[in-house]
Amino acid sequence: MQLLKDRIRKDGKIKSGDVLKVDSFLNHQMDIHMFEEIGREFHKRFADSGVNKILTIEASGIGVACVVAQYFGVPVLFAKKNKTKNIAGDVYTAKVMSFTLGREYDIIVSKEFLGAGDRVLLIDDFLANGKAMEGLVELVKVSGATLVGAGVVIEKGFQPGGAALRGKGIRVESLAIVESMDEATGEITFREETA
Amino acid sequence: MQLLKDRIRKDGKIKSGDVLKVDSFLNHQMDIHMFEEIGREFHKRFADSGVNKILTIEASGIGVACVVAQYFGVPVLFAKKNKTKNIAGDVYTAKVMSFTLGREYDIIVSKEFLGAGDRVLLIDDFLANGKAMEGLVELVKVSGATLVGAGVVIEKGFQPGGAALRGKGIRVESLAIVESMDEATGEITFREETA
Asked: Is A124 part of a structural domain of the chain?
C-alpha cells in the first residue's frame, strides 16, 4: 500500500534494536484518515472471505481494527492480556511469549463471543516475531471458529513472524513489509508486492 | 441516547459490587454500528467546539474514540498506562488511582503530540470514580492544550466521578447515565436527560 509506505518513510523513525517508531500515526497518535484507507484496502483483499468477526489484541491493535471493521460491517473482539492469576472458566486462553517483557503472559477472550460458525479475520498494527499473532491464531483454533487470515499494517520482514505464520498455511496480508532498515542513514527498504 | 439505553437494558448484566457488564457490545466485543451512532451523537454535541484532537486511555477507550474521531475528522491520541520505572523526559505524566488495582499508576503521552493550540475532547467508554478521566484532564492541563470537554459512553451516576468533573467546570456529556441498578431484579434506572 503505497500511501502507507510513503508515510512510514516520511514519519517513521528508526531506533536501535530494530525498532521502527511510527507513533505519530499508528500506535500512539492515530491518523484516522490513514486508518480509513487501511480499512478500505483490507476489505478489498478479504472481501470474499465471509468474515463475520475481527479479532485483535489490546492495546494498539484496537483502534485500527475498529476502523477496518466498519468496511466489513462486523463486530470487533479484542483479546485481553490477562493480569490476574484467577481466570474464570468462561474464557479461552492462549500463551504469548513476550521478548520485550522476557516472559510469557496469557491472553483471553470470552467463550461467549467466539466459536464454531465464526469466520475470523485477525488484525494487528505490527507483526515482528509473531508471538501475539500466534496467540490469536490459537484462540481461534480452540474456539472452533474458522480463521480466514491475518491483516497486518506493518510487518518486519526481517523478523520471523510472517514466515512462520505463512509456513502454517495462514494467509497473511501485510500492507507494508519492511525488508531492511538502516538506523545510520534512515533508509527503509520495502519488500516488492507480488500482486 | 435512547438506542444506547435500550441496548444496556437488553444486554447489560448487573454483577455484585456495582459492576455493569457490557462486554458484549462496548468493551470486549465491540458493536461497530453502535459506535457509529455514538460518534454521530458526540459530534452533534461538540460540533461547534473546534476539536482538533481526541484523547483517550488504553485499552477499552481506544476503539470507540477512533470511530468517534471519524465524525470530527481529527486524530486520536491514547494515553498509555506506564509499566516501566524509567520514563523518558519527552512525555507528560499524570498519576491515576486505581480502585481495582488498589494502587496508583502513571499514564503518559508524548509531548510531541499534545500542546498549546490543541483543542482536546476526552473520550472514554466508562465514567465511575473518574480517576482515569482526571488523569487525562491533568495531561491536557500540563501540556498547555485547551480542554473542550469529555464524552463518556456510560456514566455511573451513583459514583462520584461525573459530579467531581462537572464541579470543576468541565463539560461532561454522557450518553447514558445509570442512576441506579438492582442486581436482584436486573432493573436499571437512567437519569432523565435535561436537553
From this structure: yes
A33 vs B: CB within 8 A? yes
Please tell me the distance from the alpha carbon of residue B49 to that of residue A93, in angstroms, as a whole number.
Answer: 44
Out of A32, A75, A80, closest to residue B69 by CB: A32
Contact B29 A63 (CB under 8 A): no
- The answer to whether residue B195 is domain-embedded is no
Residue A139 in domain: yes
CATH at A44: 3.40.50.2020
C-alpha cell at B34: 453502535
In a domain, A195, yes or no: no
Task: Kindly report the nearest CA distance between residue A146 and chain B, in angstroms.
Answer: 17
Residue B58 CA: distances (Å) to CA of A48, A58, B1, B22, B41: 32, 8, 24, 17, 22
Helix, strand, or coil (residue B161) = helix
Chain A positions touching B73 (Cβ under 8 A) are: 32-33
CB within 8 Å: A30 and B75: yes
- Reduced to 3 states (helix: H, G, I; strand: E, B; else coil), residue A154 is strand
B78 touches chain A (CB under 8 A): yes
Query: Is residue A21 within 8 angstroms of chain B, CB to CB?
Result: no
B62 contact residues in A (CB cutoff 8 A): 59-60, 62-63, 66
From first to last of its 195 residues, what are the pLDDT tens digits of chain A?
999 999 999 999 999 989 999 999 999 999 999 999 999 999 999 999 999 999 999 999 999 999 999 999 999 999 999 866 555 679 999 999 988 778 999 999 999 999 999 999 999 999 999 999 999 999 999 999 999 999 999 999 999 999 999 999 999 999 999 999 999 999 999 998 765
CA dihedral A79, B98, B32, B34 (to 10 degrees): 150
Number of domains in chain B: 1
Domain interval for residue B80: 2-190
Contact B69 A36 (CB under 8 A): no
Chain A residues touching B30 at Cβ < 8 A: 66, 69, 75-78
Q: What is the DSSP string of B101-154?
A: TTEEEEEEEEGGG--TT-EEEEEEEEESS-HHHHHHHHHHHHHTPEEEEEEEEE
* Residue that the C-alpha cell 519488500 belongs to: A191
**Reported ipTM exceeds the 0.85 cut:** yes
Task: List the one residue out of A178, A129, A179, A169 whose CA is nearest residue A149.
Answer: A169
